[in-house]
């Protein structure tokens, strides 16, 4: 019940975000441009989806947490019975739903049905989960909007840049190392789900889940420490 009350508050605050419609139009416009080249859709689709997912979740989650700090309302929230994971989940709820909506719309823009829908959905879900955990951690650590920009801009660029590289096409040794970092698994699952090419679903899912759980645990612990220090 507490969680749904927190989520309702996040959706109520969403009315102040006038840039949301612009963001959706920009992402769909980029997807439409890439979708025109049907021959390279397997290369372009992961790029558009990854950018849309991480941008959506990070923008909403980081901004929501940092704005609470600047208004000093997060302090009041931390002394309520709400658990740290409930707070993180509520703060990320809008971004998660936006990322899911953007993913569905982008897939419609590309028009072709995925060859392996389950693999594609797994890749999207894991990308959204990791984006939620990493974005929440940035929002928890950052003190204000200025410091959050210093953190999230380079980190988001590195994360998205590393994820959209088509590692499956590379024979380098570094490509195998990237399989164990939160970059190649997402790109590989989305690409494999779209093309039907075989990918190590269990391994990629285990890698992304491990990073997601770790980041959520770290974020929840920091929030808990902030609550007990007040």
The oligomeric status of these chains comes to single chain
Note the gap between the termini: 25 Å
Q: What's the main sheet like? A: none
- Return Rg in Å: 18 Å
How would you describe the shape? Answer: globular
Q: Could you give the count of β-strands?
A: 0
Order of helices and strands: HHHHHHHHHH
> Helical element count?
10
Regions with little confidence, pLDDT below 50 for 5+ residues: none
Q: What percentage of residues falls in helices of 4 or more residues?
A: over 70%
Average pLDDT score: 85
SSE class: mainly alpha
Strand content: under 5%
What are the SSEs and their pairings?
Blueprint: H1 2-13, H2 20-35, H3 41-71, H4 74-78, H5 84-110, H6 117-141, H7 145-164, H8 173-178, H9 184-195, H10 201-228
Helix pairs in contact: 1-5, 2-3, 2-5, 3-5, 3-6, 3-7, 3-9, 5-6, 6-9, 6-10, 9-10
Task: Give a verbal description of the structure.
With 230 residues, this protein is mainly alpha-helical. 79% of the residues lie in helices and 0% in strands. The protein is globular, with a radius of gyration of 18 Å.
Report a brief summary of the structure.
It contains ten helices and no strands. It is mostly helical.
Which properties best describe this structure?
230 residues, mainly alpha, 0% strand
């Amino acid at each position: 019940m507490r969680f749904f009350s927190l989520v309702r508050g996040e959706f109520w605050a969403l009315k102040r975000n006038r840039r949301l419609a612009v963001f959706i139009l920009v992402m769909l416009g980029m997807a439409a441009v890439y979708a025109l080249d049907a021959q390279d859709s397997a290369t372009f689709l992961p790029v558009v989806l990854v950018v849309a997912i991480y941008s959506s979740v990070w923008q909403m989650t980081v901004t929501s947490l940092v704005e609470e700090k600047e208004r000093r309302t997060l302090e009041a929230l931390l002394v309520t019975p709400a658990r740290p994971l409930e707070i993180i989940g509520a703060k990320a709820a809008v971004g998660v739903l936006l990322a899911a909506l953007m993913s569905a719309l982008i897939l419609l823009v590309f028009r072709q049905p995925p060859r392996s829908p389950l693999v594609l959905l797994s890749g999207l879900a894991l990308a959204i989960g990791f984006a939620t955990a990493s974005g929440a951690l940035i929002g928890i650590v950052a003190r204000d909007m200025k410091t959050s920009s210093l953190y999230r801009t380079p980190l988001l660029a590195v994360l998205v840049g590393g994820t959209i590289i088509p590692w499956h096409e590379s024979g380098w040794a570094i490509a195998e190392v990237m399989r164990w970092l939160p970059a190649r698994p997402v790109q590989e699952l989305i690409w494999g789900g779209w093309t039907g090419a075989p990918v190590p679903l269990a391994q990629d899912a285990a890698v992304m889940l491990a990073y997601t759980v770790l980041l959520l645990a770290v974020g929840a612990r920091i929030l808990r420490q902030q609550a007990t220090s007040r």
